[in-house]
Amino acid sequence: MGREFGNLIRVRHIISYSLSPFEQRAFPSYFTKGIPNAFRRIQDSILRVAPPFIGFYFLYTWGTQEFEKSKRKKPADFEENK
Fold it and tell me: What are phi and psi of 68, to 5 degrees?
């Protein structure tokens, strides 16, 4: 056979390249480009994402408080008429 595992089939008009794992860099320009880009993307989308989350948070807390209030017993129902 004489072929390696990565070259088992020959496909025409398709060029593929590979790089050894020992030659790759795991985090190229992570601190110089990656983190600043993440901050920029967060700043661009915060005004679209934050208001619904804040609104749903207040709606959830209000609903939870109302539910807990409705579960309480009313003291006036248990007073004896004297």
Answer: -65, -35
Q: How many residues does the chain have?
A: 82
If one compares 50 and 8, the residue with the highest pLDDT of the two is 50
Do 18 and 6 form a contact (C-beta atoms < 8 A)?
yes
Residue 18: closest CA among 32, 4, 30, 29: 4
Per-residue pLDDT of 23-42, as tens digits, reads 777 778 888 898 999 999 99
Terminal Cα distance for the chain, rounded = 104
Mean pLDDT of 48-76: 93
Backbone angles phi, psi at 43, to 5 degrees: -65, -35
- Residue-wise pLDDT for 4-13, tens only, equals 666 666 667 7
User: Whole-angstrom Cα distance, residue 50 to residue 43?
Assistant: 11
